[in-house]
Write a structure and sequence with these properties.
With 321 residues, the protein is α/β, with parallel strands linked by helices. It is built from 13 helices and 13 strands. The strands form 3 sheets. It has a 6-stranded parallel beta sheet with strand order 7-6-10-11-12-13, sandwiched between helices. Strands 2-1-3-4-5 form a 5-stranded parallel beta sheet, with helices on both faces. Strand 10, helix 10 and strand 11 form a beta-alpha-beta unit.
Length: 321
């Protein structure tokens, strides 16, 4: 039984699958060649992350596919319902990367409030000739402690982000029409824990009352944050998006940054991925990462192992039936 992990899979995941008798292929196949490769090599399981898209054309062209798997949370690069209608089992790993993404959100917040992104660009260029000038330029940072973080979408990653923010001494508010209340159990290194209860608020309240806003939403048809929403926000707000490109109107964001309405933005995802707009890439008020939210060694290990267990379980059940 052959598995194509087209966007990669952890060594531990490969080991688990190989021990169970699967052959794991990690060759990176170009998008337009995926269907041909799957058929030519008699692939039964196609595993992807965010790069490879598995649309109707590939599903129709590959009748021998038994499983399509997504290493991560969002399934917007897979035609899930259509795949299921064709008898293909679709799996993902929603719990495996929550902490990794949450830590990146907080990293962007720290970066933004202390101008680390811009300082790291300019220190190598001017650090030896304009040290005092740069010191003055970056001297008016602010603290996260005591500030309000507004979270839009209180799923697993939103919850993980809230826990870290509370640990930093931040106030957390959130808006999620699907989750009216959320109990947060925050565990510490010595076995102790505390549990806090939060209640969802109207989106308008989150926009108006937050010092910083973090998006945790699936792929959207329209913008969650555009010009109208930015106008509702506090002056000097910070906005982070490590969820999905297209949730923020990037033109409106750049305008708000230029007008000092928004203090900074932290982006891991982009409207035009993998070719972000140059106005985004060159803006000194935007902290940038290349869609690496789930890309920690720990998360990739968890993702690989979870995918492996789901695949093994599926084929074991098939053998029984």
């Amino acid at each position: 039984m052959k598995i194509l992990a087209n966007d990669g899979i952890s060594k531990s995941g490969i080991t688990t699958l190989e021990k169970a008798g699967f052959e794991v292929i990690t060759t990176k196949v170009a998008q337009e060649q995926v269907a041909n490769f799957v058929n030519k090599n008699n692939i039964s399981v196609l595993l992807v992350r965010s790069a490879t898209k598995v649309r109707k054309d590939i599903i129709d062209a590959c009748p021998n596919l038994k499983i399509i798997g997504r290493g991560g949370v969002g399934m917007d690069n897979i035609d899930v319902d259509y795949a299921k209608s064709q008898g293909i089992h679709v799996i993902n790993t929603p719990a495996s990367s929550s902490e990794s993404v949450a830590e990146l959100v907080i990293a962007h917040l720290f970066t933004g409030v202390r101008f680390l992104h811009d300082s790291n660009r300019n220190m190598p260029l001017e650090g030896d000739t304009n040290f005092d000038g740069l010191k003055k330029a970056y001297a008016n940072g602010i603290e996260l402690r005591g500030k309000t973080l507004g979270i839009i979408g209180m799923g697993r990653i939103g919850k993980a982000t809230a826990k870290i923010a509370i640990g930093l001494g931040m106030k957390v508010i959130y808006s999620d029409t699907h989750i009216p209340k959320k109990d947060l159990k925050i565990s510490f290194f010595n076995g102790q824990s505390i549990t806090l209860s939060l209640a969802s608020e109207p989106l308008e309240n989150v926009f108006a009352d937050s010092d910083f806003i973090s998006l945790h939403v699936p792929a959207q048809d329209g913008y969650v944050i555009g010009e109208k929403e930015i106008k509702m926000m506090k002056d000097g707000v910070g906005i982070v998006n490590c969820a999905r490109g297209g949730a923020i109107d990037e033109v409106a964001l750049v305008k708000a940054l230029d007008e000092n309405k928004v203090l900074f933005a932290g982006l891991d995802v982009y409207e035009n991925e993998p070719n972000p707009e140059i106005t985004i890439l060159m803006n000194p008020k935007i902290s940038l990462t290349p869609h690496i939210g789930a890309a920690t060694e720990e998360a990739q290990d968890r993702i690989g192992n979870e995918l492996a267990q789901q695949i093994i379980s599926f084929f074991n059940k098939s053998l029984v039936h």
